[in-house]
């Protein structure tokens, strides 16, 4: 469906995938469930027709907790096909917030286009009197139509703020200002009168999709008393790569250290991230399981990427190489 429009306005593809932004309270379950299509969402924002023309593609209607590599690939293909059309000025994706940062990062890595790609969601469902979906969709259209948005990569636009896919994380379970970019801050703002960008994302790279499926990569948490058994089980079950949600600078205990060495010895790349929200992992400590010993064992360090984002980069990197040096170079960019 195409929104009512003024023919001289920019044309944006609007891909709807579900999430809270597409949910209403079910009278039987008495809880939010998928209910709205992209066309329904568009109807909640009549003022959008003065900003851009939107071409709706109802790709999925699922909670973002159900997003997975096959759905990421399908979404990437839909977005890439839209971006290739010369008449399309950019892409808007509506999506649940739980995995929104993962989908944004996956698209940022795999799409090659200067046209803006703007992801939105909502913290409050469409039955709520203060539903935040319409404002976010309106601002996404404003960002999509902004000439300044070209070359900014994939963005998340919620609560009037614009964040870069690489940097942004969900930081609060309920607040509408949940998406933040840690030490680096927002890219810009969708102010009432205009869209204003303050910086550009500099650490971008492109990794093409090389097949119809992605290698299996698991995230293993480190915590006080971790045995390393979960890591061994993941390798036994067929994981092609492992991301460790380590502690602090990128440290683990002796048991996890032995499991990591064993996995690397079996040819399974291991990436070290951290459960700390901000800062880089660095091979600093020399005790068994300290970062320096993990580096010496052949582990890859995820820089400042969260475990969930490190997993996505590793999945894409493993399409073409298992070499630790080449994989490390991807994380260092």
Automatic annotation (TrEMBL):
The active site is at 20 (o-isoaspartyl threonine intermediate), 97. GO terms for molecular function: asparaginase activity. Pfam families: Asparaginase, Asparaginase_C. It comes from the Bacteria. Keywords: Hydrolase. Substrate binds at residues 64, 97-98. Residues 216-331 form the Asparaginase/glutaminase C-terminal domain. Residues 14-201 form the L-asparaginase N-terminal domain. Gene3D superfamilies: 3.40.50.40, L-asparaginase, N-terminal domain. One of its GO terms (biological process) is asparagine metabolic process. Belongs to the asparaginase 1 family. PANTHER family: 60 KDA LYSOPHOSPHOLIPASE, L-ASPARAGINASE. This is Putative L-asparaginase. It comes from Herbaspirillum frisingense. The lineage of its organism: Bacteria, Pseudomonadati, Pseudomonadota, Betaproteobacteria, Burkholderiales. The gene is ansA_2.
